[in-house]
Amino acid sequence: MSLDVKTESNEKNMADEKFQKEFKAAFDNSSDSNKITKFNAMNPEGGVSGVFDWIRCVIIAISIVVFCLTFVFRLVEVDGSSMMDTLSNSDKVIVTNLFYTPKNNDIIVISHASDYNKPIIKRVIATEGQTVRLDYQNDRIFVDGVQLEEPYIKGSTFSNNISDLYMEHDSNGNFVIPEGKLFVMGDNRVVSLDSRNEKIGMIDVKDVIGKAQFVAWPFNHFGYIYD
């Protein structure tokens, strides 16, 4: 009698375990089926989402390029020979302008000058508040009483037909750069139309596009502009 009860109990336990396994398997299959159904249902939406993601990436990329070209750097072509031998005609230079403040010896691109509407590229000789003296007789330039060392210039500093007489001088031949202005010159001084000429005059800082950094083209001129 005791043996029969024990056998019946074992059979009942086995039946319960079998039922639980079958129930669990059925539940798992149902869950997998639901997952697959949901995945399949999302395919069309996923395709549309992918297109929008691609468009968004393109817009972001274009925005970054526009931002960089507007606020970080530009590619500018040199027109003329006034900056030889540092820069040659048709050289393409990379110009940076983000948070830029012009400093002495910088080569800058200027949107326009006093009576000259074309963009020009020149070297900064002096900034606001500095005192400049052009020594025509001895072919020298003094800024704040110190003679400039200019290994980059081509030929003579001055030519016979250039004068700074439009500027107000003191008895020693010095003139002071006004607030917000720059005094600029080309490296090829004999032919350069620059701040020595009233047509160009003192450059307004707000008309500075940026600082020339590298020659990007042609490749035989490629490199950093400053020594």
Task: Write up this protein.
The protein has one helix at residues 2-72; strands spanning 73-77, 92-96, 107-110, 120-127, 131-135, 140-143, 146-147, 174-176, 181-185, 203-204, 208-217, 223-224. The chain has 227 residues and is of the alpha+beta class. The chain folds into two domains: 1-74; 78-224, Umud Fragment, subunit A (Ribbon). Strands 1, 2, 3, 4, 9, 10, 11 and 12 form an eight-stranded antiparallel sheet that branches. A hairpin with a 5-residue loop joins strand 11 and strand 12 (223-224). It is elongated and about 115 Å long. The termini are far apart. The model is unreliable at 1-7 and 30-42 (pLDDT under 50).
What's the CATH H-level homologous superfamily of the largest domain? Umud Fragment, subunit A
- CATH class category name of the largest domain: Mainly Beta
Note the main sheet: 8 strands, antiparallel
Named CATH topology of the largest domain: Umud Fragment, subunit A
Helix content: 25-40%
Name the structural class. alpha+beta
Multimer state: single chain
CATH architecture grouping of the largest domain:
Ribbon
Counting structural domains, the number is: 2
Beta-strand fraction estimate: 15-25%
Query: What is the rounded Rg?
Result: 38 Å
Which stretches are low in confidence, meaning pLDDT under 50 for 5 or more residues running? Answer: 1-7, 30-42
- What is the terminal-to-terminal distance? 109 Å
- Arithmetic mean pLDDT: 81
**Envelope shape:** elongated
How many individual β-strands? 12
Number of helices: 1
Query: Helix and strand string, N-terminal first?
Result: HEEEEEEEEEEEE
